[in-house]
Amino acid sequence: MIDAVSAVLILLGLGFYLAGSIGLLRLPDLYSRLHALTKADNLGLGLLSAGLALLSQDLFTAAKLLLIWLAARYAPARERAAAAG
Amino acid sequence: MPELLAVAALTLMFSLFLGLLRVLRGPGPGDRMLAAQLIGTSGVGMLLLLGVLLGQPALIDVALILALLAAVAAAAFTGQPREENDD
């Protein structure tokens, strides 16, 4: 049961990764590419690490996965702030 | 489950390849930096998957370092003064 939920989360995350990469490649200008990239960063990595956290053995590993997601979210937020300002 | 994780890691490698194509095409430094961010995020995801797949918990720490370095790279890029504004 937990395996199935985790597999669904990982597959959803992969979908967002692929959509973000294809958007980064095909969208016309910098801002729309940034929009595509944030989908891959936030949702792709978020869903992937949520799926892997369900697979992990202890709470510490799951907390570390959450921390990695928060750290990865920080980078495009900086870039978006700079692009807007 | 191991098969799914392996296929997922391969898919992330394909996503990283698409990011490299954007680095090749440019056109501006901002676009290349966005592609570098995508490569960093794909690398983090790949390391997490491989850490679970190979049973190596240390790879999760490597992924954490890579995510922090990507954040530092973005901060360094956005902190430098702009030379021209081509938007």
Structure notes:
The complex is a heterodimer of chains A (85) and B (87). In chain A, 91% of the residues lie in helices and 0% in strands. Chain A is mostly helical and 85 residues long. In chain A, helix 1 runs antiparallel to helix 2 (30-55) and helix 2 (30-55) runs antiparallel to helix 3. The mean pLDDT of chain A is 84. Chain B has one domain. Chain B has helices spanning 2-25, 29-53, 58-79. In chain B, helix 1 runs antiparallel to helix 2 and helix 2 (29-53) packs antiparallel against helix 3 (58-79). Chain B starts with a helix and ends in an 8-residue tail after the last helix. The mean pLDDT of chain B is 85. The chains are: A mainly alpha (85), B mainly alpha (87). Chain A binds chain B through residues 3, 7, 10-11, 13-14, 17-18, 20-22, 24-25, 29-30, 33-34, 37, 40-41, 44-45, 48-49, 52, 55-56, 61, 64-65, 67-68, 71-72, 74-76, 78-79, 81-83, and chain B through 1, 4-5, 8, 11-12, 14-15, 18-19, 21-22, 28, 30-31, 33-35, 37-38, 40-42, 44-45, 48-49, 52, 57, 60-61, 63-64, 67-68, 70-71, 73-75, 77-78, 87.
**Low-confidence segments of chain B, ≥5 residues, pLDDT <50?**
none
Strand percent estimate of chain B: under 5%
> Greatest contact pair?
A-B, 42 and 43 residues
Quote the distance from N terminus to C terminus of chain A.
Answer: 47 Å
Rg result of chain A? 14 Å
H/I helix tally of chain A? 3
- Report the helical percentage of chain B: over 70%
Helix content of chain A: over 70%
Stretches of chain A where pLDDT is under 50 for at least 5 consecutive residues are none
Structural class assignment of chain A: mainly alpha
